[in-house]
Write a structure and sequence with these properties.
The protein is an alpha/beta fold and 511 residues long. It has two domains: 10-144, no CATH class; 150-501, Rossmann fold (3-Layer(aba) Sandwich). Helices cover 45% and strands 9% of the residues. The protein has 18 helices and eleven strands. The chain has helices at 23-37, 47-50, 69-84, 109-122, 126-144, 161-174, 179-188, 190-217, 234-249, 284-295, 339-344, 379-394, 399-417, 435-445, 453-457, 461-476, 482-486, 498-501; strands at 10-12, 18-20, 223-228, 252-256, 300-302, 305-306, 311-312, 319-321, 327-332, 358-364, 426-429. The protein has a five-stranded parallel sheet with strand order 4-9-3-10-11, with helices on one face. Helix 13 crosses helix 16 (461-476). The longest helix is centred in the middle third of the chain and has 28 residues, at 190-217. It starts with 9 loop residues before the first strand and ends in a 10-residue tail after the last helix.
């Protein structure tokens, strides 16, 4: 048991051995996370917003008495250890929870990592909890299983330093790097339209370049996979690429819906929600069997998953699928780069597969825009707002459910998707400067976001913070005129952003 005096004791390793527990390891990990994500003190919500400081006092120190980030790190470390000592390991008020009844209790390293993440979340440091989870996942992929090599490492969430510099220069050099500047372009009218046109052309040129790279390097292409985080624009990108394939290569396209491969009777969390974001929710064995067979031209029976019933339909209703010699298998899925799928298509494990038969495109909204407080808007904010809007509009899912559920989405992305970004053949920025102005129009007018205070009343701190963050961005961005949504003069019908604001020419269209 870890003593309240924070003495060094043992902790279990993954292999069952024991190492000495050292609080400095937690503190060093929190310091590293701070260097990657940003200052902890900048992330504390002031009392004027939530009616109290989000971060609870500890050691008798109130947040107003905290001197610097190291003070916060010491407090967070104390809280982690307090939870490890507690009967209720996720207790919010750890000093009020009884001590663990087993004096010889030895936590595992995995348990300690989990407590660090939960502590950061429950204290309101959401970006830091996500950053910690991401780097922990990356270390596992790099170190434990050797799936990724050093060259697959990311640079501050980008594929490389060069990619980041080139991407960010588009925003800074053209004056698109802040909500304030973009609002001013919208007030002027024509400059805003020119910005949208320029960004849309850049995105489509990148799609065109990806297509050209595919035909230049994959002479025997049999599978195209478009992947990325939730609401990254995979549907629009898939349609644009497939139109090029049909027109210029004369190939037919056979879509494979990974969503149909969910297992029967998914487990639910404490709120009763099914977490479809984790790839373990898929029938990985069936996917591993079917994809190589489809690429080889064999007929397979693909399952049908009923989301209303949360289970598969009987096998008698499954659909037959085949990819003939003149066709390409198209996989639009957030999990295309997970090991079980990649290994099934690895020539070392499957001699019938060759390197030039598969091509992966990864999408991410790499917008480089600052808010009104001059803070860089985290890239995941765009996915978050897009997802809330899409699910509310097209899946009739209330914001009250979508907003707290965002953590489940982020957990799956940071563990399974983002670390594998550099396994793709091409990475494309799917962000559009000015998209907050479009989202402000459709999200504030049609389905108004709930007030964050209702989440606080229900003791849902995560939902309250995420709701506040979303509202803040939408309130800062001047909404575009309704005619920009209804007509195609400023935003084309095949724009990626149409996938989320409506009136896409691809809506209801099959590839």
């Amino acid at each position: 048991m870890i003593d309240r005096n924070f003495e060094k004791i043992n902790a279990k390793t993954r292999m069952g051995g024991q190492v000495r527990f050292d609080r400095s390891r937690i503190e060093n990990a929190l310091i590293q996370t701070m260097h990657e994500v940003g200052s902890y003190s900048d992330s504390v919500f002031p009392e004027k917003i939530f009616g109290r400081d989000v971060m609870l006092p500890y050691r008798g120190i109130s947040i107003g008495e905290v001197r610097d980030d190291l003070d916060i790190i010491h407090i967070l470390t104390d809280k982690v250890i307090g939870r490890l000592n507690s009967v209720n390991e996720l207790a919010l008020y750890v000093h009020d929870s009884p001590k663990h009844p087993n004096p010889s209790y030895t936590p595992s390293q995995q348990t300690i990592h989990d407590h660090v993440i939960h502590t950061l979340m429950q204290e309101g440091f959401l970006e830091h909890s996500e950053g910690y989870l991401f780097h922990r996942s990356l270390r596992v992929h790099l170190g434990k299983n050797g799936e990724l090599r050093p060259e697959h490492n990311l640079f501050h969430g980008f594929p490389s330093k060069e990619f980041m510099e080139m991407n960010n220069s588009f925003y800074t050099d053209n004056g698109y790097d802040s909500i304030e500047k973009i609002n001013e372009l919208l007030r002027e009218g024509k400059p805003f339209a020119e910005m949208v046109e320029r960004a849309d052309s850049l995105y489509k040129n990148n799609i065109r370049n990806a297509f050209q790279q595919m035909i230049d390097t994959k002479k025997n292409i049999r599978m195209l996979s478009i992947t990325g985080k939730s609401s990254s624009g995979k549907t629009t990108s898939t349609h644009l690429l497939c139109d090029m394939i049909k027109k210029e290569l004369g190939k037919k396209l056979v879509p494979l819906s990974i969503d149909m491969y969910f297992n029967d009777y998914q487990p639910r969390d404490a709120r009763g929600d099914i977490n479809y974001e984790l790839f373990e929710s898929l029938d990985l064995g069936l996917l591993r069997e079917h994809i190589p067979r489809l690429i080889a031209g064999e007929k397979v029976l693909t399952p049908i998953y009923n989301f209303k019933k949360s289970r598969r339909e009987p096998e008698s209703e499954w659909q037959e699928l085949q990819v003939d010699e003149d066709s390409i298998l198209v996989v639009d899925s957030h999990c295309s780069l997970i090991p079980v799928i990649r290994e099934a298509l690895d020539p070392k494990d499957n001699p019938s597969i060759t390197e030039d038969q598969r091509f992966y495109v990864y999408l991410e909204p790499f917008n480089h825009i600052h808010d009104m407080d001059d803070n860089l808007i985290h890239m995941s904010r765009y996915n978050m707002l897009r997802r809330w809007r899409r699910d509310r509009e097209h899946r009739d899912t209330a914001y009250e459910f979508n907003i707290p559920h965002w953590w489940a989405v982020r957990k799956g992305e940071l563990r399974d998707i983002v670390p594998r970004m550099n396994l793709a053949d091409v990475v494309i920025n799917s962000g559009i400067p000015g998209e907050l102005n479009f989202m402000a129009r459709v999200m504030q007018e049609e389905f108004e976001l709930p007030n964050y205070e209702q989440f606080l009343e229900n003791e849902q701190l995560y939902g309250a913070i995420r709701c506040y963050q979303g509202q803040k961005l939408l309130n800062e961005a001047i909404p575009v005129p309704q005619e920009y949504i209804d007509g195609y003069k400023v935003l084309p019908g095949d724009s990626l952003l149409r996938e989320f604001v409506g009136n896409s020419v691809f809506a209801g269209k099959h590839i």
